[in-house]
Amino acid sequence: VYKMIKTRTAWENLPLTLTVSQAAEVLQCVPETVKRALRSGRLKGCKLGNTTNCSWRIERDVLRKFAEGDT
Fold it and tell me: What are the tens digits of pLDDT across the range 29-70?
């Protein structure tokens, strides 16, 4: 759905926060790759829920900077 975003306007059409699955679609990778980047701290996000059953959210602008290599 998202294909790798190349224009600023296209980035602005994304939701303000994305799930791991949505971020993986944008980056054209599998969700586990996004989770590894989050756990290692290379990609910033916030956890929702308890420690055993949490889900991540990534801000659109943070994901854009990560995709562009500006982390």
Answer: 999 999 999 999 999 999 988 777 789 999 999 999 999 887
**Strand stretches in the chain, DSSP E:** 17-18, 46-49, 54-59
Contact 63, 34 (CB under 8 A): no
Helices (H) and strands (E) counted in the chain, each on its own, are 4, 3
Give yes or no for a contact between 17 and 57, defined as CB atoms under 8 angstroms apart.
yes
Query: What CA–CA distance (Å, rounded) separates 1 from 23?
Result: 11
Pairing label, strands 54-59, 17-18? antiparallel
The model's pTM: 0.82
Question: How far is CA 54 from each of CA 2, 27, 41, 42, 48, rounded to the nearest angstrom?
Answer: 24, 21, 16, 19, 5
